[in-house]
């Protein structure tokens, strides 16, 4: 007979959530907060040590995390992961060091494209798999539905597809009963698209059809620049009264060397800290582009490299050696910049319900009709259709629907198909879990 002493152990083993002392992060209004109500400012590093997934080698993670902690890092951004891999070791090591994760949901084959934009089941299934894997970790601070999808004015029609992905990911997150992990987007710093894209992605009066946060890859502050000369004053002006958190998802211009990271004093200082939620420095490993903060050895000729830890001519395993003086310069900057922000209790009392006016469609410019419904799952943009009349390709069927049809089926992604591979695995796991709990109840 099963003993009473073993029952708690068995039940603990059935828990899907990784237990960790690290507090989770939530988005409230235009700011991020820890569970205790303290405002969270991002001091982050872009960490794609290996092209496929840098969060599977626990030993290497621990070596790198020790150096990250030395910098004062409290977050990393990872662009590509394998959702079927085991990430517990690295995620636990990150949590133990007080480091949170922002992770992109897409891959090179499922990302939303500005040419022939579409949003279908294949993409959505991949996004769900990544969310399913990382939602279990309390230090997952946010997920991103795209990175620099729009880079030209001609790419504007892709914007509604970014929002459609965010809408469906949020609906899936809520349907599964997951923690409300913020869902956002990382934008390219394209003057012709600012601030229209920024405002479009956050202007809907329907919270389910806007981002939870917006982030920008910006390299405007180079060398010994200033708040005004760099263009940061314009970025601040465009972000003032923005209704959701906004931060730099990449920064750290290297056209003038060494990098002194002078922009950090503006981002975390009086000029911007009340509006911006911090920054992520690009990037951790030294590669051909010379943006690295650490190196694992000299570069090698890719055609002659035989070591398994060498990819694209760079060693990606071993002891991380700081790049001098960039590493120390960033460490010194972050050590002197510690904004306190505002307490959640005070913020809730004083914060107004900020709202944005959606950018109007203009001839030859921002071509999105603000009154058009978002694309539904399975739609592909059809050039010339400002109201997003779309060709439906999901499930192998092909039909053309009008904007009226799209409007009437908005939110259809809330119902997850039972034939989805992810859903089948989740249903199977649920049945197994229910059975095991039943066994425990029987023996008790």
Automatic annotation (TrEMBL):
Gene Ontology CC, one term: side of membrane
One GO molecular-function entry: 1,3-beta-glucanosyltransferase activity
Catalytic activity, EC: 2.4.1.-
One matching Pfam family: Glyco_hydro_72
Protein name (database record): 1,3-beta-glucanosyltransferase
Function: Splits internally a 1,3-beta-glucan molecule and transfers the newly generated reducing end (the donor) to the non-reducing end of another 1,3-beta-glucan molecule (the acceptor) forming a 1,3-beta linkage, resulting in the elongation of 1,3-beta-glucan chains in the cell wall. Involved in cell wall morphogenesis.
Keyword Repeat: no
Top-level division of the source organism's lineage: Eukaryota
Cellular localisation: Cell membrane
Signal peptide start and end residues: 1-21
Family: Belongs to the glycosyl hydrolase 72 family.
Keyword vocabulary terms for this entry: Disulfide bond, Glycoprotein, GPI-anchor, Lipoprotein, Membrane, Signal, Transferase
């Amino acid at each position: 007979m099963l003993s009473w002493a073993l029952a708690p152990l068995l039940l603990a083993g059935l828990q899907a959530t990784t237990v960790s002392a690290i507090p989770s992060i939530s988005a409230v209004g235009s700011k991020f907060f820890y569970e205790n109500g303290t405002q969270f400012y991002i001091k982050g590093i872009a960490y794609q040590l290996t092209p496929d997934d840098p969060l599977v080698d626990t030993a290497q993670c621990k070596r790198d995390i020790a150096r990250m902690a030395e910098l004062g890092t409290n977050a990393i951004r990872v662009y590509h992961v394998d959702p079927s891999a085991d990430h517990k070791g690295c995620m636990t090591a990150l949590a133990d060091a007080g480091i949170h994760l922002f992770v992109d949901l897409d891959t090179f084959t499922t990302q939303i494209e500005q040419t022939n934009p579409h949003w279908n089941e294949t993409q959505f299934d991949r996004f769900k798999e990544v969310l399913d894997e990382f939602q279990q970790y309390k230090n997952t601070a946010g997920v991103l539905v795209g990175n620099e999808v729009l880079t030209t004015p001609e790419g504007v029609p892709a914007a509604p597809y970014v929002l459609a992905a965010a809408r469906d990911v949020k609906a899936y997150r809520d349907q599964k009963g997951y923690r409300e992990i913020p869902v956002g987007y990382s934008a390219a710093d394209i003057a012709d698209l600012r601030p229209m894209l920024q405002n479009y992605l956050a202007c809907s009066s329907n919270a389910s059809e806007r981002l939870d946060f917006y982030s920008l890859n910006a390299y405007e502050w180079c060398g010994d620049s200033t708040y005004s000369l760099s263009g940061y004053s314009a970025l601040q002006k465009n972000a003032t009264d923005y209704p959701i958190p906004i931060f730099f998802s990449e920064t750290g211009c290297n056209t003038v060397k060494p990098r002194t990271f002078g922009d950090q004093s503006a981002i975390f200082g009086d000029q911007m800290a009340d509006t911006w939620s911090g920054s992520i420095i690009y990037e951790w490993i030294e590669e051909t582009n010379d943006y690295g903060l650490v190196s694992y050895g000299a570069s090698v000729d890719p055609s002659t490299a035989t070591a398994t830890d060498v990819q694209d001519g760079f060693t990606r395993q071993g002891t991380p050696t700081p790049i001098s003086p960039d590493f120390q310069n960033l460490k010194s900057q972050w050590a002197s910049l510690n904004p306190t922000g505002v307490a959640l209790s005070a913020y809730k009392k004083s914060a107004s319900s900020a709202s944005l006016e959606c950018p109007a469609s203009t001839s030859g410019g921002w071509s999105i009709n603000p009154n058009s419904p978002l694309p539904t799952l399975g739609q592909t943009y059809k050039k010339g259709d400002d109201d997003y009349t779309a060709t439906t390709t999901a499930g192998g069927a092909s039909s053309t629907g009008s904007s009226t049809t799209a409007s009437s089926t908005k939110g259809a992604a809330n119902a997850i198909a039972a034939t989805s591979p992810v859903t089948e695995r989740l249903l199977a796991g649920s049945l197994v879990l229910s059975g095991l709990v039943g066994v425990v109840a029987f023996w008790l």
